[in-house]
Amino acid sequence: MYWIIAKGLLIPFLGTALGAACVFFMKKEMSAEVQKMLSGFAGGVMVAASVWSLLIPSLNLADEAGMGRLSFVPAVVGFCIGMVFLLILDHVIPHMHIDETMEGPKTNLNKTTMMVLAVTLHNIPEGMAVGILYAGWLNGNANITEAAAMALALGIAIQNFPEGAIISMPLHSKGLSKSKACWMGVLSGIVEPLFGFITVLLSSLILPVLPYLLSFAAGAMIYVVVEELVPEMAEGKHSNIGTVMFMLGFSLMMVLDVALG
Questions:
Q1: Is the dihedral of CA 90, 6, 38, 23 positive or negative?
Q2: Is residue 227 within 8 Å of 121, Cβ to Cβ?
């Protein structure tokens, strides 16, 4: 059982690492069309994962707890807190977009460090989201299955693939060697299995507030979609490419959740 959980927690990190390794195979920065495709696909995956893997289980758990017509309260409260949490992070760390990766507020830290810090902090709620599902499954919650946790891990890994490339490739274009740029991208994802593992360790403590934590993770993920991925996929020409890829990403994640869950 614990080996299954370990593999599930490592899957999102693997997505980041593979994406960061793209710097070894691409000579130039990604074209605007490819960026829109990746952002749209990742956005669709994250929205579907937030609904089927996080918000719906949160509502079901609250209903089983006897909240009746108020079963929406944990989902709403946790969702809003998750979005506000990411909003605060965006005021503390640089605002990151694909086409302006190296831009940020004036700071004593160099821009490279700030960019990696931004992505790293955004990865924490994603790692926690996977850990929360595995914690619920580990404690025998009927609303959370191993397959559902694995589907979320796969969905986040898909989303992390372009994110890893978005880090390593611009860093290389700014003068870093390919190996160093790749490692910077890989290291940005290490927090996901780390915080996922911590969440599982604290599973006995988080069960009473599991509906809130599930919706918190959903809010954090939706914030990334609305604030980062949607603007990137819709900006400029050929925005329809991003829209089509959003549809495909959403559909794929929905199929994974329903078929595996």
A1: positive
A2: no
Distance CA 59, CA 205 (A): 20
C-alpha dist (Å) from residue 115 to 110, 121, 136, 142, 216: 9, 10, 33, 40, 24
Tens digits of per-residue pLDDT, 91-121?
776 554 444 444 444 443 455 666 677 677 7
8 A C-beta contact, residue 142 and residue 210: no
From CA 179, how far away is CA 209, in angstroms rounded? 42
Residue 116 amino acid letter: V
Among 176, 75, 67, 161, which residue's Cα sits nearest to residue 123? 161
Burial string for 77-91 (b: 16+ CB within 10 Å, else e) reads bbbeebbebbeebbe
Longest dimension (CA), the chain: 58
Q: Give the pLDDT confidence of 195-251 residue by residue, as tens digits.
A: 999 999 987 788 888 899 989 989 988 998 898 888 888 887 767 888 999 999 899
Structure tokens at 99: 């086409």
Nearest to 122 by CA among 12, 34, 11, 205: 12
- CA-CA distances (angstroms) from residue 169 to 26, 163, 165? 8, 10, 6
